[in-house]
Design brief:
Blueprint lengths: L6 E3 L5 E3 L10 E6 L1 H4 L3 H11 L5 E6 L5 H6 L6 H6 L5 E4 L5 H4 L1 H17 L3 E6 L9 H16 L2 E4 H11 L15 H16 L9 E5 L5 E6 L2 H15 L9
Parallel strand pairs: 3-4, 3-5, 5-6, 6-7
Antiparallel strand pairs: 1-2, 8-9
Length: 255
């Protein structure tokens, strides 16, 4: 199994990644998390980005609002995350803990993150850690969130998906960009688009620059369904931020 992306915090506070592309993108991905995962259909947006480049990433999710990995592990809220992983039908599992867990209960993050990683790896699935962002009122949270997810990645050999550092970079470059929902915690459509760009880059090893600014899927009747619509300027900005944080080219991949 290919080793994880390992993050190193430099004195500037930014996250630089030694990016290692996988041999191929995962085809069946299970997202385990909460509202930071399901707001604005993040898994489906990642799948739509892949489809736009003739790649197949089928996504499923086990999510419930305000839920921690510990609650997922115990099967609370009628969640079936652990049984879903144990079916062995996924080649990648994304883990996302409660947004404040890294700050308020880091030992719990490390404990249940490792337990889930062990279960996923036993089925042959790669493990990805969805590193989330700081609340809008306190950007200094990001350093702790980053450090704790980095600790977890090193403990279980997982791959970091550095969404939080991408948000941090975007906020520093364009404070006007509306990444947050009005509650100043959850992502807006733009925030989710940026998150999806980061996931796309990590999953595929390709630069997200040049992806569509409108992400389209279909409903059960085959009718067109718009998952996200961004201006061309905002979409390109998000793509470049994601590429920059991942160390990928700031130009579209050659066709």
């Amino acid at each position: 199994m290919i080793k994880a992306l390992h993050a190193a915090l430099l004195t500037t506070g930014f996250l630089f990644l030694s990016f290692c592309a996988f041999a191929q993108a995962p085809e069946k991905v299970l997202f385990v998390g909460n509202s930071y995962t399901y707001f604005w259909n993040l898994p489906q947006q990642v799948a739509a980005m892949a489809k736009s480049r003739d790649l197949t990433i089928n996504t499923s999710q086990s999510t419930s609002g305000g839920t921690s990995l510990a609650q997922h592990w115990r099967g609370e809220k009628k969640l079936e995350s652990l049984p879903m992983i144990r079916t062995g039908q996924y080649d990648a599992v994304v883990l996302q803990d409660f947004s404040m867990q890294a700050l308020n209960a880091p030992d719990t993050l490390l404990q249940y993150g490792q337990q889930f990683a062990k279960e996923a790896e036993a089925t042959g699935a790669r493990v990805f850690l969805y590193m989330t962002w700081a609340r809008a009122f306190d950007p200094y949270m990001q350093a702790t969130i980053t450090a704790k997810y980095k600790d977890l990645a090193e403990l279980c050999g997982a791959t970091i998906v550095p969404v939080g550092p991408a948000w941090e970079r975007a906020r520093s470059l364009r404070p006007d960009l509306p990444l947050y929902d009005p509650d100043q915690s959850h992502p807006s459509p733009t925030g989710t688009y940026l998150a999806a760009c980061v996931f796309y880059g990590v999953f595929t090893g390709q630069s997200p620059v040049g992806l569509p600014h409108r992400l389209v899927s279909t409903d059960h009747a085959g009718e067109k369904l718009y998952l996200n619509i961004q201006s061309t300027e905002d979409a390109l900005f998000c793509q470049k931020v994601a590429a920059d944080v991942l160390g990928l080219p700031l130009t579209s991949p050659a066709k």
